[in-house]
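Ticket closed. Logging final result for Glycosyltransferase family 9 protein.
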Amino acid sequence: MKEQQRILVFRLSSLGDVALCVPVIMNVLEQNPELSIDFVTPKFMHDLFPVHNRLKFVDFDKKGKHQGILGLLSLLKSIDLKQYNAIADLHEVLRTKVLATASFLKGKKVVSIKKDRKARKALINGETSQPLKPTTEKYADVFRRLGFKLELDHHLKNYLFDSIPRTNKIGIAPFARHQGKMYPIDKLKEVVVALSKTNPIEIYGNKSELDDLKDWKSIGNIEFCKGNGLKDELKQMSGLQLMISMDSANMHLASLVGVPVVSIWGVTHPNAGFLGYGQSWEGIIQDENCQWRPTSVYGNKLGPSDNPTGFGGITPEMIINKTYEMLIK
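Final structure:
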């Protein structure tokens, strides 16, 4: 019998990136019965993970007691590092570098994600069109380098809920953090009008976003998802037949609950490694003729003025047709 191992894992943001951690964490626990994990992330993101007796959480309070260098050191001081065999940094930003370095100075083995920024830069600069390694595999490599066996099948699966009945509802998540990742709302409304004639539509977004779409209620056969917190929203999402999403957190949330996604890409590109876990490349909609894409990995940089978001070549009809194509698969 292998000796018991306990690992402290850091991934402090964002919602979509933490969601991508879920299949990796659950698979490494399943494939390594000797392993226990304490996962450091903001409290509201704990609901992204199913309950597991070898998985615990440490709350990261970014805007409160863990703010700044002193806050990070306070976080580390509250954790008994002696109980851990190693530290896994799945984020590799300034905050986690501080935590990782402090842990290393206390004698702990530390392994950090290799983001391969050189390859990302080559993709953005048009020097390569080859897909980068999926982010989930980069996370998995951290655990492999720590000596744990880990294979990912990249199959779509509901990690959170059993026996949720599927309906014929189509979910639509119109919003994203950056303008370059948001398909024009007026064109998306055309998609909603067409699809609502055959399927009930459920719109996803936060309160202020949904308030901006109040006029959509007049379309008919449409409702806004008003979940009571993240877990409840995920439960509602797991009953969808399909989700239409931007390159946004909702693509990854739908993936967590086993829902196929039609994903619409603007200034970002699925070749950067951020396609939802288990999602089919057949579900991707992008302008293949837009040669300057991607402008960045995160979508915070617009393109040329004649087509700044990269959505210029994507028509509502393309999204409607792709949706029906995916529904019959």
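The first strand starts at residue 5 and ends at 10. No further action required.
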